[in-house]
Design goal:
single chain; 404 residues; mainly alpha; Growth Hormone, Chain: A; 17 helices; globular
Length: 404
């Protein structure tokens, strides 16, 4: 790997993380926004839904834009959009601005999980096979977690206003724009941009049952993550009477950050083993999170079970992503990433939309119970789908992937 590729790889990987870092900043401040803007639990769920909706739009219509305009210029464009999201949150003053800011950050995340993720994998072609998928699988949780922690800590303990914080994040994003400028282009421009805007997702050959089983884990784990994004701050303030944005960040990131540990160990397991045991442990922890919240009234146990669930999610999610992506050619990567993340974000968005549209006001226990039931049902379906070994990838596809 030459120097330019190394700098580009660091810049692209860092850009993917910083995009999610910026998107994680508002999450521990939700209870503050809820109080200042007089938002209900349903409205708060809709705020998260706007973020998740924003991710779905580019995953449906723009996943292959970098195949035609080039990875590098599109990555720079995404980083510029992220800066506009930071500025929106620096001056948020109404529910509409809050939702608009989350929509922008969702669009950035959706573009990042297809275009920037594909760029990272391209630049990692000379590294071990697991490096690219591990980074792209971990970046969302790592970035969101760090963004949460830093935002909660800085605004709570350093007397930094949210306005100043998001302005500083915008400056950091600019640094990665400079690094990406030094990266080499991995996808030469080609015609067909307009045709590429038509929704088209790519599933490698002989991978339908693998994807179906993996999607159960994608949907269920991200759905519970969507609950955490919407209500972690509210759980801390309402359930336990703690008005501290850093503690709220800790509760949210407990379900995300340990995911990186699970992602690292996923390569040690065969995909079916990782899915069945990883997802199974996640489902068990989801039940125990509900028990600790309502019946044991223990924030400490809730955090512990969240952390174990996150590690388990990392194992199940990364194993599925690595196996599916390993069957895709270079030209299929953007479309394959889009399919994976559209499935995942859809799993988080739809339950949030349902909660937001429900008439009346429901308790956190009732809302979480619904999410836990969803997780358990998805796990049962996955067990059925993964009962037999998955069909092997076609030899010609594997050869093309290894040679790309």
């Amino acid at each position: 790997m030459d120097t330019r590729t190394k700098v580009g790889f660091v810049g692209a990987a860092g850009a993917l993380i910083i995009l999610y870092f910026a998107s994680g900043g508002p999450i521990p401040l939700y209870s503050i926004y809820q109080e200042q803007l007089d938002l209900s639990n349903g409205q708060l769920s809709m705020v998260s839904m706007y973020y998740l909706l924003g991710t779905v739009i580019p995953l449906m219509f723009l996943p292959r834009i970098s195949d035609h305009l080039g990875r590098r210029p599109v990555t720079v464009m995404i980083l510029l959009i992220s800066i506009s999201g930071c500025i929106t949150f620096a001056y948020v003053s109404s529910p509409e601005m809050l939702m608009a800011g989350r929509l922008i950050q969702g669009i950035v995340s959706g573009l990042g999980s297809s275009t920037v993720a594909a760029y990272v994998v391209d630049l990692a072609s000379d590294l071990p096979r697991w490096v690219g998928p591990t980074i792209t699988s971990s970046a969302p949780t790592l970035g969101l977690s760090l963004g949460c922690f830093v935002s909660g800590g800085v605004t709570n303990y350093m007397s930094v206003t949210s306005e100043s914080y998001f302005e500083m994040v915008a400056v950091v994003v600019c640094v990665f724009i400079v690094l990406v400028f030094f990266a080499r282009e991995t996808m030469p421009r080609k015609p067909g941009l307009v045709r590429s805007l038509r929704p088209r997702f790519v599933l490698p050959p002989n991978s339908l049952r693998l994807y179906a089983a993996s999607s159960m884990a994608f949907v269920a784990t991200w759905a519970l993550g969507g609950f955490a994004q919407s209500f972690s701050s509210t759980i801390v303030s309402e359930q336990f009477g703690i008005h501290d944005s850093f503690v709220a960040a800790a509760v949210y990131t407990a379900l995300l950050l340990p995911n990186v540990v699970g992602s690292f160990f996923a390569k040690r397991f065969e995909v079916r083993q990782a899915q069945r045991w990883g997802f199974g442990m996640f489902a068990l922890c989801a039940v125990l999170m509900l028990v600790s919240l309502e019946f044991l009234d223990s924030l400490a146990l809730y955090i512990v079970f969240s952390m174990v669930a996150a590690v388990s999610q990392g194992v199940a999610f990364t194993a599925g992503v690595t196996e599916i992506l390993g069957r895709a050619t270079k030209e299929q990567r953007s479309g394959t990433f889009s399919l994976i993340y559209l499935t995942s974000y859809g799993g988080a968005a739809i339950p949030n939309l349902v909660v937001g549209l429900l008439p009346g006001e429901y308790s956190l226990f009732t809302i979480l119970t619904g999410y836990v039931v969803l997780v358990v049902v998805m796990f049962a379906i996955m067990l059925v789908l993964s009962a037999k070994p998955y069909p092997k990838a076609e030899a010609r596809e594997v050869a093309r992937t290894e040679g790309s």
